[in-house]
Amino acid sequence: MKKLIATLFGVSLISVLSACGGAGGGGAEIPDTPEGQAFQYRTSVMEAVAYKVGQLRAMAMGEIPVNQELFVKHANDVATLATMIPEGFIPNSAIEGSAALPEIWTNNADFQAKAMDLHTAAQALAMAAQSQGFEAAKGMVQQVGGTCGGCHRPYRRRQE
Ligand code: HEC
Question: What is the pLDDT along the chain (160 residues), one digit of tens a residue?
């Protein structure tokens, strides 16, 4: 029935229906509040981190062509991105759809230390790759990857 009405009244009705939740499903709307914005910001930072660590890993595993310069850049970028993580976790921003656990705020010094672990590991990787070359440094990608779980385990809700 909805479909028929929608066809009769055209596109505008479809958008009204979905705006009212008529379309069903989908994720929760992210509120346009400081907390919602912080959530969006940190999600983007995490995705950038995940992309770049993925590129580092793929080079280390021989899945994509090795580019020494790009390898150093990705590692440096991850080191910088790591310092941008804590500012995305403003108070009370464990909004609907977020996997952030309350311990982030009750145990904030440790949470920040975990971000620093990622920073330190990525920086060490960049420095090793720069001074000793890709081959000598590629094994250190594993240490960088290890810091993700080091923070996710205590501070991120598990996906069901
Ligand atoms: C200092 C803590 C910390 C570190 C380090 C960290 N993460 Fe996260 N990450 C989180 C938290 C907390 C969330 C959940 C945030 C939320 O949902 O509000 C998250 C969420 C994510 C997400 C989901 C983003 C989305 O689309 O919802 C990805 C992907 C991710 N992290 C990848 C990584 C990778 C890869 C690394 C390591 C290279 C990493 N993270 C390191 C704390 C961390």
Answer: 444 434 444 444 334 333 433 333 446 789 999 999 999 999 999 999 999 999 999 999 999 999 999 999 999 999 999 999 999 999 999 999 999 999 999 999 999 999 999 999 999 999 999 999 999 999 999 999 999 999 999 999 997 6
Measuring CA to CA, how many Å separate 89 from each of 84, 104, 159? 10, 8, 19
In this structure, are residues 157 and 120 in contact, taking their beta carbons and an 8 Å threshold?
A: no
Q: Is the CB of 74 under 6 A from ligand 1?
A: no
Cα 46 to ligand 1 centroid, rounded to whole Å: 5
How far, in Å, CA of 79 to CA of 77, rounded? 5
How far is 63 from 1, CA to CA, in rounded Å?
50
Tell me the chain's radius of gyration from C-alpha atoms. 21
Measure 95 CA to ligand 1 centroid, in angstroms.
15
Q: Rounded to the nearest 5°, which phi and psi values hold at 159?
A: -75, 135
CA distances from 117 to 6, 59, 131, 140 (A): 53, 22, 21, 13
Q: Atom 37, ligand 1: which residue's CA is nearest?
A: 148
The residue whose C-alpha atom lies closest to atom 2 belonging to ligand 1 is: 151
